[in-house]
Amino acid sequence: MTETRRRLVAIAYGFVCHAIFGLAALTMVVVMGSGMTLGFGRVLEPWNWVANIALLLQLPLGHSFFLSDRGRRMLKWFAPRAVASDMAPTVYVIIAALQVGALFALWSPSGIVWWQAEGTLFYVFVALFLSTWGLLGLSTLNAGLELQSGFNGWSAVFLGRRVRYPDMPTTGLFRFTRNPIYVSFALTTWTVPVWTPDQLLVAIVLTAYCVLGPILKEARYRRIHGARFETYARDVPYFVPRLTPAPRAGGVNSDA
Questions:
Q1: What is 62-105 written as a DSSP string?
Q2: What is the pTM (predicted TM-score) of this model?
């Protein structure tokens, strides 16, 4: 692959990745903030629940699969062979963003609203809801924005070097819980100003995934980093945050 073609491929993947990522994030905030009432799906009762459950399950199942050894190998199928390994982080984010976008954009609302905050209470809940997204953003920064956004894949290809992965995060919110991204995302599902049966289903399923999903990631960390990860894990709880930050620990190089 020529240098010019490699750079054009990198720019194309980067544009697609960040465009889909941004659109999916915006869709998720708006639709979830409405208690899932603004989904564009139009599947009729009772089949809307079948379609919605399928949309819900594809997100955690796909997310976990592409983090597995087999799934990580499959990521290389979606980029030119010459750059497939280095483009894998970007491909992963593209797929994950498409899954998120599909879940929220294609949701078929039940039309039932149990409760909606009004007046001052509405603004309180909106502030609370947005603050949980702020926590999610901070967690993402602490984890390494270049990896979480897919930037490190396409930028490495553009520069003609191997992809570089950030150290395993142990600073910032990672001093309170080993999985602040999952904790923050779970909180977003429970702080909405509108409650519907749709939102309750989303909150239960996605919170369950947020609690169970990191198990596979941590198993890989234990296999790769051994005692270094165990030392960190002894001081920092798995999910429910500690009240004070754990002692600072040196970062550990990670590939995910």
A1: HHHHTTSHHHHHHGGGGS-GGGHHHHHHHHHHHHHHHHHHHHHH
A2: 0.91
